[in-house]
């Protein structure tokens, strides 16, 4: 029996491998390849249940592949979550991304999912902010102060040296305070302001990033200062009118956004109030959902906020996780990092 | 950061844990719970591509949960395959089944998939043969002599002491010969007959098991001896007329079979020539697809072959893998077997 080896990379190892990787360029490359059609994003698997505390728990399994350099990267992201996890002292969501050998289809690398998931999400925000944000800004408002917010803050400071102030709001003031303490340690040069209400936080700067677990829109267009860029990462924070009045709306994938009417932009698109830039009816008085990849590819001019609002509304694509994990896996293999397990095992240990 | 531990069980360890487990009773229990509605089988994820040899390669990810004892077992079966794998000296399909903590949804056990998959498939065949097969038989015909056939032969000899002869056929005579040699070593008391053509193998006994990779039906009803039980495991071997003339047809799940018209019984059902036992039109001159679980639960009487044919056509349910793996996982944990990895890792090793 030939061995069937899989390399397991825990979060600490993943972070070590990421040291030499620019996640923003990996994400931008994957978005471009996806826009060029060199990717596949099959329908995701989804299973939900209630745990013994009656809390919503779920498993999501997303297969995907994307061109990376001269070959395709194939994999699956398994990201499970339970609402009661934070009360147990663990992150709400957890799981792993698995990469497949393109020749044999065998799973060959298993990568802790949470860190890469937060990183690729923040990297997409950095990319869109760089390309579509105000040409000049020194402050960012962060709505929702959990794990992904911490990652955003870290990358904001790293990629935008001009940022001198972060405005924070969370429905739970303890989380805001915790992120503030974290930032005081890691970015002592940045001024951090905690806001007692979401409206004042939204109004405080011309770059607003939503990173909540909201399922009901609550931010009206009037709260935003003229010329604001909104990274609507958590997908259910801004009200429909924000999209209708926006100077531009950018998405990662038209179908993913439109086919999910439980999210605000999906419902607005299904109602016909925002149409895809690919549709023939485009431009006849309707707001357009534009593919961000077209801008990255240089095929469309970037629309930055002038007097109004520009909204980036990325649904989130598992191929971004696959792409980042593939870069991590290459480095781990070269450096001999991770735990390698032969899934066939030692036949001497089998009793029958 | 709290640890996030996952236990990895390779095939050798799985086999060791299985020593004290009766796979047939685990499978029967899962089929019963499924029939009682105490299960969930979400739509599977599927991604296909061609490898560099132009060969069909695919990933299939199947979430599922099923009642097991007093709790539910949750998990996902990832089973990938490439047509060129056997030429590389590895099994065509491979992957793993992952079990989730019902409380946190975290992946907690990862089990090599191939062995359990073959075992649960063979265990279902043993169960159906015991319940629906001829009351008296001493020979079995096996069509297709790969990995799953070897598992079937092993369980046949173990569960049916009366079996004195196995008839083998494979489109590749080398595989037939290899299985014959394997059986000569492991079951020296059983007579093994290699057949040069599939028809003579089908005709040789009143129990026929199809374990091929056929995608085109080729066995007409006339080849079967009167009073034959057919375990149509590979789903595309018997021609539509076999179903139309059968004394009874049994399936594991009506929807799975009917919703897959690429398989022969699915296409026959979509054409309306075989109807589900649950449908109101049942019994009006149409052949019926019956749920095997109803027989196991004692709610329907078993129909064994008399002068005609009885066909068992199990689509294959990932919850059977989840159920068997759950039993394996419990034993592995008690015995401290497997490789335990903390997916968070040691933060001291993270450079940033």
Radius of gyration of chain A: 21 Å
Relative strand content of chain A:
25-35%
* Major sheet characteristics of chain A: 9 strands, parallel
| CATH architecture label name of the largest domain in chain A | 3-Layer(aba) Sandwich
Query: Class of the largest domain in chain A in CATH?
Result: Alpha Beta
Strand order of the largest sheet of chain A: 10-9-8-11-12-16-13-15-14
**Count of DSSP helices of chain A?**
11
Assign the structural class of chain A, choosing from mainly alpha, mainly beta, alpha/beta, alpha+beta, or little secondary structure.
Answer: alpha/beta
| Total E-strand runs of chain A | 17
The poorly predicted ranges of chain A are none
What is the name of the CATH topology of the largest domain in chain A? Rossmann fold
Major protein interface: A-B, 69 and 69 residues
Quote the average pLDDT of chain A. 95
Organism (chains A, B): Streptomyces colonosanans
GO cellular component, one term (chains A, B): cytoplasm
Pfam family, one (chains A, B): OCD_Mu_crystall
Protein name (chains A, B): Ornithine cyclodeaminase
